[in-house]
Design a protein that fits this description.
The protein is α+β, with helices and mostly antiparallel strands. 19% of the residues lie in helices and 32% in strands. Strands 1, 2, 3, 4, 5, 6 and 7 form a 7-stranded mixed β-sheet that branches.
Amino acid sequence: MSLRLRATPELVTAAWLTTVVGDRVATTLPKDNSSWAASGFCTLVVAGGSPNLYVPLREPVIGVDCWANSGSSQKPPWSIAAALAEAIQAACYDHPSIPQTVTLPAGYPAAQVKSAYTTGEPRRIPDDPSSYARYSIPGLALAWVEVPS
């Protein structure tokens, strides 16, 4: 018996964030920081939430970090990291575009994001040893369901 691939909070959040900030999203930063120096990058981690008890509605809360670096300077480019965080916040208010169906990697069902909101304001995280600029969104709550195939 083979297991069916199922959507996960990380996959759905990454797919939704990609519609907001482009292909600059993963669970970890790329090793080559020059590849995202000009545009910034977002990382995510599941921080909490719970699936609905009675219907297949998932409601994870995701921690999102927005990063930027200036390869040629020790001065962190705060405005780039802040712009990413604010783009995510603005997308949560873009109610005409939600619900939104997102495509997951091959073999996974699509998912429909029913709602998106943040649970706190983005905050600057100072003193990164790599001189990266980092804004942290403490919680991005996405309500979503798998799209039946």
